[in-house]
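so my prof wants the structure for this chain in the tokens format not the other one, which i didnt know existed until like an hour ago. anyway here's the sequence
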Amino acid sequence: MKFNSHLILLVAAFFYTSNLLAGKQSTELDYASLEKDYYNLVDNQTYKPFAKKEKQIAKTSVEDLINNKVKRKEREMALYMAKHNIAYARLIAEEQWLQSQIEQEEETAHNLEVDISKTEAEIARHDAELARLMLIAQQEEAKRAYDRANEAEKLAEQSQKEADLAKQQTEAAKRYAEAQAEEADLAKQEAELALEELESLKRKLNSIASKQTDKGLVMTLGDFVFDSGKSSIKQQAIDNFSKVVEFINTHPDKKVRIEGHTDSSGSAKLNLRLSQERAEAVKALLIKNGIEAKQLEAVGMGEDFPVAENTTEDGKAKNRRVEIIILQ
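here's what i got, hopefully its the right format
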């Protein structure tokens, strides 16, 4: 009987050791693949100067796994996050490289608008892919949280107190997942609205035309270039003001009068001040873009010179304008 007991213990120890070695070999294969993936990223000469912060995060997560700094029960999650960090760093490096390419092209080839548009589209694709990966990570984390909550609920059947606690954790995990999903949807909607607003503003600025009047050659900016009720010019308009600058540069020897106009809403005093401030804002932006200050004059006209009836919203919108006049 004693001999049989020793034999059983030896067999059990053999199988236990074999399982450990098999698990260790599998883990080593995962770590080797992970380390190879990381060095493929950092040794890529094209992307070497980029995404340094993200590469450092990926490096830390890989080294923590390889150097056994992660608890055994957390290794699966740590392995997943390390792979995710490498993929994220690669995307950021690619995006930053693409951005650097755009900057180089803008310096040396301002006529290559089609190529720049393609590069910007590629960045947008990478941004979308990055957002998709982040959303997938959030969804998978939410699923793991949900699974953990279900497991806790099963174990909690041992006592009523543990069951109540597990239920609270489950509800919290579900609320978190729903909140994350709502935030992701909101962020997507806000990004789409911002892009739509930018494209609309670009189209409006590009469609602006000048016309000959008794006062001179006039280009009219609608109030879409300003924040509502304010004199500050929208950043998107500032970034796309080249057509206005080109309009003035075609007449370098002419004086330019910048007239601000408002509708009749509110007091005449406030409208006069707003029209003056908007005219001054346009003048300042033109000076910043290389137009000589002595060539420019900014005047607020208030509500006294409407071009349409102030009885409709459409008429009011037409009256809220800044006219850039090349004086005869």
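also thought this was worth mentioning. The two ends are 118 Å apart (CA to CA).
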